[in-house]
Design brief:
By secondary structure, the protein is mostly helical. Helix content is 67%, strand content 0%.
Length: 123
């Protein structure tokens, strides 16, 4: 179980670095952070790719930071973990960071772009 959570953190971290290094240049339905708000304009698309990739990397490092101490100190004790937790904890380790990334990125876009996807004028 701990190794699965460790792997989830590693995947989030690696994907965050990949999306930062090679973000999609044009709006597309396959690769990158895609939502109605992010696909309204090229400016919103570009901003959402960078912002969500940074969040993904940070979320992955956070999951890793939480799972490594547990992994290093775990051993025989894991055999006493109820089976339900073996399923629930890895699910939470993947769903919670993904939800945070989506919510934060959408809030960022809502704050910095209007309904047409144009950057808001900051006074």
């Amino acid at each position: 179980m701990v190794l699965i959570i460790l792997l989830i953190g590693l995947i989030f971290t690696i994907m965050g670095y990949i999306f930062l290094k090679w973000p999609p240049k044009r709006i597309n339905p396959i690769y990158g952070y895609r939502s109605r708000r992010s696909m309204r304009s090229q400016a919103a698309w570009d901003a959402s790719q960078v912002y969500s990739a940074r969040l993904m990397r940070t979320a992955g490092l956070g999951v890793l930071a939480l799972s490594i101490p547990v992994w290093l100190t775990s051993g025989v004790e894991l055999q006493y973990v109820p089976m339900g937790w073996v399923i629930i904890l890895p699910l939470l380790a993947s769903i919670v960071p993904a939800a945070v990334i989506i919510i934060q990125t959408e809030n960022y876009l809502k704050t910095h772009f209007d309904d047409k996807g144009e950057p808001k004028k900051i006074n």
